[in-house]
Amino acid sequence: MVESAQPPSLDALTIGRGAPLEELVDRAALGELVASFYELFRVPLRIFNAEGRILADASHPEPLYVYLDSLRRARRVLAEEISAVKSVDPGVGGDAIYPSVTGSAYRIVSIAYDGRQLGRMIFGPFLPLAIRELPETLLALDPDLDVGEVRILLAKMPRARQETVGQIANHLLRTLDLILFSGHKALLTSKMHLASIRESYRELEVKSQRLQEAYDRLKELDRLKSNFLATVSHELRTPLTSIIGYGEMLSEGIAGELTTDQADFVATIREKGEQLLGLIKGLLDLSKLESGTMRVSRELVDMATVIADVQLTLAPTARKKGVTFEATVPAGRYFVWGDGERLRQVFLNLAENAIKFTPAAGTVTVSASDGTLDAGDGDDSGHVLFTGVRPAVEVRVTDTGIGIPESERLRVFDTFYQIDSSSTREQGGTGLGLSIVKKLVEGHAGRIWIEGNDPSGAVFAVLLPTQQGRAG
Amino acid sequence: MGSRGPVGPDQGGEEVQGEGFADIVPEWCHRTITPGAGPWMSWVALASPSGGNEVQLDFSARELTIKLVYYGPALSGKTTNLQALHEAADAKTTGRLMTLETRDDRTLFFDLLPLAFRDPGGLAVRLKVFTVPGQVIHSSTRRLVVQGADGIAFIADSQMTEAQNSAASFMDLRENLKTHGITLKQMPLIIQFNKRDLPRVRSDEEIAKLAQQGREAVFLAVATEGKGVVESFLGLLHLTWMSLERAHCLREKFGFDYVRFMSQVAQSLGQQRTVREILATCVGGKIEPFVTEVGL
Predict the structure, then answer these.
(1) Number of Cβ atoms within 10 Å of the Cβ of B272
(2) Cβ contacts of residue B272 below 8 Å, gap of 6+?
(3) CA A82 to CA B209: how far, in whole Å?
(4) Interface pTM (ipTM) of the complex?
């Protein structure tokens, strides 16, 4: 059976059929080895694989055989002889002699490795030392034979003792065995390399498949959470709006005059109701932002208008707390392409926070200046390839409050995160505001970060891309 | 298809020889299979009793290849076992010990020792003995090497400090077999406590006591001195052969004489003792019942 062209597998190489001779030894090197033996001993030598294909040939046409080849009948007989020699099976590890009609001989030696026959080497034709006279079989080979010529040519044939050829064969076999062992080892090593890489890869694939499944499940859970949040917020808001509405009607005296105490109580109900509504709106905003369903309108917004509005809204709160609230944003200079209402929400939240955490006699300032935004996420590698820096406005909300420790500055933007999460904390809040602010800023392709304000306090800096030449 | 199970009608003519042997041979073994019945029979891989692994059985060449694997934690002496086995074996039986890719004398891929026997009945038995790399990081290589094993020798380091590593390696073996769909119970397995010559090792009595309670056959060894190496190997070969016999009825198909074969193996490994004496060095586990069954 002919070996398939496919390279032998790891199993075949270790416990199976093994590899064919030509896989274990380099053909060119085998040719060189055989040639060096021929040079040394002058005995023609050919190596065949298990299928009888020739792998190496070290021989020169012997003049006697060249001459006989020119005779019609002799040529036919010799051709038959050669094919007979080629089909001699010496058996695994065996050795056989085939006498030629010319009086010379062939020696066929098995090349075995690991108990299996991988091929054969054929020595010859060589003339055994014992042959002195012209053999009868040679003389009878062809009627046109020139005996004188044959006598001269026969004398030129390589001569060797059978024992010597046996020794040469033995020596070559031992050399070959070493080469085959090394070849087998090298082949196994490379197979093993490939196999273990493939096995490791398979292992990694299984693991990443599991991770992907876990990730998909978490994503689905996250989506469910957002949906749930949206539904619940909506369902909570509807009755709450009624509570606040009826509270308003009560305090307006529609259902009759209230006593001072009653008016106070109703005011508290309304105030807490508004607080609750704010929280629910926040939740709703967040879930909308997370699910990507927040509707944002786009128009040219003057930052001065936004900040002025914020200042107007928060002035009473600041005054009540004894905090100086200043805003210095030049009108008609910084225009942002975005949603005015959402931007107002951003700075309202930041300023409200600033006032909340600033003690009496402190100062909260909102200022704006020129800035630039990198096209690539704050990483300036490959800068030259990007569209370049975009003009931006940097709005800074600075307070003189308790400040935010450096380690907390990234985490305060996490949903529900509170620096002071103890139940006895001084300041209220849901931990939603800043995460909404961050998402809104990012929704406007901007950036937000926190700096310290020397000697105390925090600076919330917001960088928003501006539109040029659209003033007015 | 057709590579396993009965082929042809029950001939019923052949007598089962050897007292007690028939007990461990399933009924369908008492039928005959014509060697080399067709080209499809010439090179078959038969599923062995241990599930996923395969015995390489070549009907036309009347040749059987058995894969034995030496497993165990790093530096427990797997390669040393193979070296000692190689030294003990006569030149006719063993080929070169192939050591694949080592760094600082640590096995990276595996070692492979080929042993070959020809039973007078005509069946050629080729044993391929492998080691796995013991270091934890080579888990995927171990999984590859252990695939298709017909029997496993687990080489444990006797030192108290190595007990944890041995246990972890045994779990690793179990996991790796599991990925090939094989349980430890299905696999012919012996455990060798190596390095008995070192201080601070568990005592012989303690090991014997534990071994009596366990399932696996246990052998004691000092592989660096060649002690217990051949014993462990023959123990493993014995169990593996029993398992193969049960699955493939080698005796029926090839007229294989197990007792003669084991004696031949023992002799070529330089043993003067009988196989029964050698197997009796086992300190526990279930090797005895088989010994009496086959009348060794």
Answers:
(1) 8
(2) none
(3) 71
(4) 0.76
Q: Count of alpha carbons within 13 Å of B25, Cβ hemisphere only?
A: 20
A205 interfacial to chain B (CB closer than 8 Å): no
> Would residue B43 count as lying in a domain?
no
Q: Please report the residues numbered 113 through 132 in chain A whose beta carbons come closer than 8 angstroms to any beta carbon of chain B.
A: 114-115
Whole-angstrom distance, CA of residue B259 vs CA of residue B279 = 13
Whether A11 has its CB under 8 Å from any CB of chain B: the answer is yes
B140:A199 CB<8 A: yes
Query: Domain limits at B128?
Result: 64-293
B189, two tokens? 């397995």
Q: What is the DSSP letter of A443?
A: H
Interface A-B, measured as beta-carbon pairs within 8 A, has a size of: 52
Alpha-carbon dihedral sign for residues B29, B33, B36, B41: negative
A247 membership: H or E segment, kind and range = helix A162-251
CA distances from A448 to A328, A401, A431, B237 (A): 19, 19, 17, 73
Residue A28 neighbours by CB under 8 Å, 6+ apart: none
Of the residues B60, B110, B141, the best mutation for testing chain A's interface (the one with the most A CB atoms within 10 Å of its CB) is: B141
- Convert A361-391 to b/e letters by CB count within 10 Å (16 or more is b): ebbbbbbbeebebbeeeeeeeeeeeeeeebe
- Does the beta-carbon distance from A11 to B148 stay under 8 Å? yes
Contact state of A195 with B98 under an 8 Å Cβ cutoff = no
Domains in chain B: how many in total?
1
Half-sphere exposure of B32 (CA within 13 A, CB side): 11
Q: Does A242 touch chain B (CB under 8 A)?
A: no
**Burial zone of A238 (CB within 10 Å; 0-12 exposed, 13-18 middle, 19+ buried):** exposed
Q: Is residue B115 one of the residues assigned to a domain?
A: yes
Cα–Cα distance measured from residue A440 to residue A378, given in angstroms and rounded to the nearest whole number: 18
CATH of the domain at B279: 3.40.50.300
Chain A segment 160-189 residues within 8 A of B by beta carbon are 181, 184-185, 188-189
Choose among A16, A114, A196: nearest Cβ to B140: A196
* Range with lowest mean pLDDT among A54-68, A435-449, B3-17, B127-141: B3-17
| A328-337 mean pLDDT | 89
Which positions ≥6 away from A13 have C-beta within 8 Å?
A19, A184, A187, A188, A191
Answer whether A192 sits within 8 Å of B109, measured CB to CB.
Answer: yes
Q: pTM, whole model, 2 decimals?
A: 0.67
Q: Is A2 on the interface with B (CB under 8 A)?
A: no
Domains annotated on chain A, with CATH: 10-160 (3.30.450), 206-286 (1.10.287), 297-465 (3.30.565.10)
Q: Any idea of the CA torsion for A192, A196, A197, A199, to the nearest 10 degrees? A: 140
Which pLDDT value is given to residue B5?
36
Q: Which runs of E-coded beta strand occur in A292-347? A: 299-302, 324-328, 335-338
Q: Which residue of chain B is at minimal alpha-carbon distance from A196?
A: B141
Q: Does A16 touch chain B (CB under 8 A)?
A: yes
Per-residue tens of pLDDT for chain B, all 296 residues: 333 333 333 333 333 333 334 333 334 333 333 333 333 333 344 444 333 344 577 777 788 899 999 999 999 999 999 999 999 999 888 989 999 867 777 888 899 999 998 877 778 899 999 999 998 888 889 999 999 899 999 999 999 999 999 999 999 999 999 988 999 988 999 999 999 999 999 889 888 888 888 888 999 999 999 999 999 999 999 999 888 888 888 888 777 888 888 999 999 999 999 888 898 888 876 665 554 455 45
Helix/strand/coil for A306: helix
Considering the domain boundaries, does residue B32 fall inside one? Answer: no
Element (H, E) at A36: helix A27-41
The position carrying tokens 């909260």 is: A364
Find the largest Cα–Cα distance for chain B.
Answer: 61
